[in-house]
Amino acid sequence: MAGLPATAGSSSAAVRLPPLAAGFDYGTPFGNHVVDIECGNSGLSKACGSWKGKISVVQRDKQVVPADQGGCNRKTC
Question: Which of 22, 26, 39, 73 has the least CB density, counted as fewest CB within 10 Å?
Answer without folding.
Answer: 22
